[in-house]
Design brief:
The protein has helices spanning 2-9, 14-35, and strands at 38-52, 55-67, 75-87, 93-100. It is α+β, with helices and mostly antiparallel strands. The two termini are 27 Å apart. It has a 4-stranded antiparallel sheet, covered by helices on one side. The chain is globular. It has 2 helices and 4 strands.
Amino acid sequence: MDTDLTRAYALVSGGFATRYNELATTLLVPAVKQGNLSSKATVPQAALLDAQPGQVRVLLYLSQDTSRPGQTQPRTVGAALRATMTKSGDGRWLISDLQPL
């Protein structure tokens, strides 16, 4: 989990980075450690909503599989999200906002 969170923190910026850190430390990490949960999210589809210099908004379709001990099959949940991505000073595109739809 620590490795995954470190990778995730490197992909977010601004106020969203603060919100993501709060969510991870208060909800995600305790839930995983207490319930021995395993979760994997993929983005099977994405589409550009709009673009301007240094910022884009994209529509993401998310598929998340979550499993816990005693479950025979992972539980799959789908969601649509709007992500705002901002170009950083070093040229990387980072998630600066993420909203469920």
